[in-house]
Amino acid sequence: MRRISALAVSALLVAGVLAAVAWNLAGPEPRRVTGVIGSEKADFFADPEVAERFADLGYTVEVRTRGSRAIARSDLDGADFGFPSSDPSAEAFQREHGTDREYRPFYSPMVVLGHRPVAEALREAGAATEEDDGTWTLDMAAYLHLTRDRTRWRDLPGGGYDGAGRGELLIRTTDPRTSNSAAMYLAVVSYLLNGEEVVQEPPGGEAGEHIARLFLAQGAPPESSKQPFDQYAALGAGHTPLLWAYEAQYAGARGPGGAEGAEEGGAGGLPDGAVVMYPAPTTVSNHTVLPLTAAGDEVGRLLTEDPELQRLAAGHGFRTSDADRFTAAARDAGRPVRAQVGDVVNAPAYEVVEGMITRLEQAYADGGLPEPADERGDPRDGGAAPARPPGAPPARPDPTTESA
After folding, report:
1. How much is the pTM?
2. Last residue within a domain, chosen from 258, 284, 310
3. What is the rounded distance in angstroms from the CA atom of residue 387 to the CA atom of residue 66?
4. What digits encode the pLDDT tens for the residues 223-262?
5. Residue 109's beta-bridge partner residues?
6. Is residue 129 part of a domain?
7. Is 345 a domain residue?
């Protein structure tokens, strides 16, 4: 009987050791962390390699997307961090949420995506130049001169570009009322229309009217940067001759372009004959992690310091502290990029940007265009929730998430 008892005890001890070994091998359950991000970073967080690396580091990161302006102004429903895409939005976020910690793991210059026949038509008009590295330069002052005269694509010198039919020569943007990329465009055009000086107050008069028309002439704008990029890739030059975009959207594009890429879902690749044009001047989007909890702080630190996450960010087209890592990743993907981006202007102060956007909101309303999705609580922009003024009650939780 004692022998049977001893065997039973031994079996239990062995089972306990095996269970301990299995637990040690499996490790503790990853800690769940949630964030609210700009849609231009959605593909990065949805990447299985990114999710696997975070899991190795002990975290499951779930994100939902909103426009950067909405991230700054909205209740984040218990999220651990915000991740907007510009300095003014980050400044507004810190004011709204009473935080001062920040991480800047990567950044992206703003570019204009086009098509070779479009770029060649602009070259004939004296507004674009092809560079030796395979990229193009877009003279933004010359572009604004053409838009002031409401030039149509077919009316450019040398026959122009007739693929856009009767369309007016315009760069397509997102909605400035919600999206950071449009606010970056606003920063550049306001600088040029202000005698090449960063504006200290919202432009009025002829400059203000010109700015408003650059946006309103596009019609109802898309709420996020992902939607117009997908249409640029899928529908070609006739639909989107020029698109204001993050360089990362171009450098990190994967898979087939055109309609095939659109049917497969995701951002897809680039259309045949795609070109990247660096505006002169341009501005830079600093993607800033703003922690609200200790877990959010750790995610910001890991995104900034972990070599593997930095490598994966470069693979998605973002520039990191290691310039060679980005250029190597772009080269491996077959994307001509500019090794260094000069002729960069700063964005205006947050209050000035808000003032310009407020005027555009009124211009949209006067033109009979609908309110943006974020203002209506429409979930089309990755589950966007209504922006709220300080002191307003919190919005309902946002169910739309993606895990990393």
Report:
1. 0.82
2. 284
3. 10
4. 878 889 999 999 989 899 999 999 999 999 875 443 333 3
5. 284
6. yes
7. no
